[in-house]
Amino acid sequence: xxxxxxxxxxxxxxxxxxxxKNKIIHALNEIRPFLAADGxxxxxxxxxxxxIVKVKLHGNCAECSVNQMTLKTGVEMTIxxxxxxxxxxxxxxxx
Length: 95
Known about the structure:
By secondary structure, this protein is α+β, with helices and mostly antiparallel strands. About 55% of the residues lie in helices and about 20% in strands. The protein is elongated and about 55 Å long. The mean pLDDT is about 90.
């Protein structure tokens, strides 16, 4: 059985990473209006090993006392709906 050329594997890996990023961005765009209604926003910081998503909460969401609940029940659930391979979503503190 012949093996695919390494450059093809790299191209496929890049394509898969881009598709995952697009799914996550779509999920964030889906939840963004709910955050904006409370004076907040969210941005994607990075994706680690295609399993962990780091996000940054902005505005009122960054200072809200229930932002961890929002992160788990709203953001993480929405991201996992679009990208089930994601295992965890974490917030990067303002700074």
